[in-house]
Q: What sequence folds into this?
């Protein structure tokens, strides 16, 4: 995510429930200087993050799709602002 400012996003919540075949996948998060996120985990991402104005957080999901998996896998992440944050004109954006 990228925070276009003008305010810092403090205490925002990122939720990314992985599709069932990907439940055992691992993930990592890297934050730009001054921003923060949980460094790593397994399965669904449910993370409270801080992204400074102009800052970024990047999640990388890794794993091997089980053989025999068919059809489309849809993955949707949801970002909820922290309590008390105003929704500025340049919200956090996924990239």
A:
């Amino acid at each position: 995510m990228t925070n276009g400012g003008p305010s810092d996003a403090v205490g925002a919540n990122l939720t990314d429930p992985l599709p069932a075949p990907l439940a055992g996948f691992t993930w990592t998060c890297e934050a730009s200087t001054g921003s923060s996120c949980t460094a790593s985990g397994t399965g669904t991402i449910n993370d409270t993050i801080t992204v400074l104005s102009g800052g970024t957080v990047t999640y990388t999901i890794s794993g091997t799709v089980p053989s025999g998996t068919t059809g489309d896998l849809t993955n949707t992440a949801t970002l909820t602002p922290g309590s008390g944050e105003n929704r500025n004109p340049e919200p956090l954006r996924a990239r």
Q: What stands out?
A: The first strand starts at residue 2 and ends at 3. Strands lie at 2-3, 9-16, 26-31, 40-42, 45-51, 57-62, 78-80, 92-93. The CA atoms of residues 13 and 48 lie 4 Å apart. The radius of gyration is 14 Å.
